[in-house]
Amino acid sequence: MKKLTNAKKIALAAIIGIALPFSSSIADGHEGEKERFFESQYRHDVMQHFNYSMKKLVPILFKGTGNRDHLPAIASIMASTASISKAAFEKDTRGMEGHTVAKDAVWENWQDFAKRMDALERDTAAFAEVTARTTDADEIMAAFRNVGRNCKGCHDEYKAD
Q: What span, in angstroms and rounded, lies between the C-alpha atoms of 28 and 30?
């Protein structure tokens, strides 16, 4: 297993600190969620932070709504979350009882999945760098499209539901 850097540890602690107060209500079946086992809930929480970032970026980039000045900070949150996403899937949970949307294919094709998660980490870091460096819409959109392709490709192969 790859050792976490200090930046990844800080991102992980932030995600856990934010998600922990809500995890018991979700795990208990509140908020319309099915009951998840611990590893599934953890993965879900990590990916939800990524999803929240995406939901804030899309209106800014495609609709001209939201606060464009927040773009670099939101991109940075997304990149931090991506940096711990692969580690959230490292434990093979096939056969564990409880809800998950991770297909068995994650662990059956771990090398491909890991390669995709590494690409997501790399491309979100590049997107965050671009948004911090420039306001050029074409350059920002090119970097964002790379992130979006990663999301779709991985979901098509490895996410159920």
A: 6
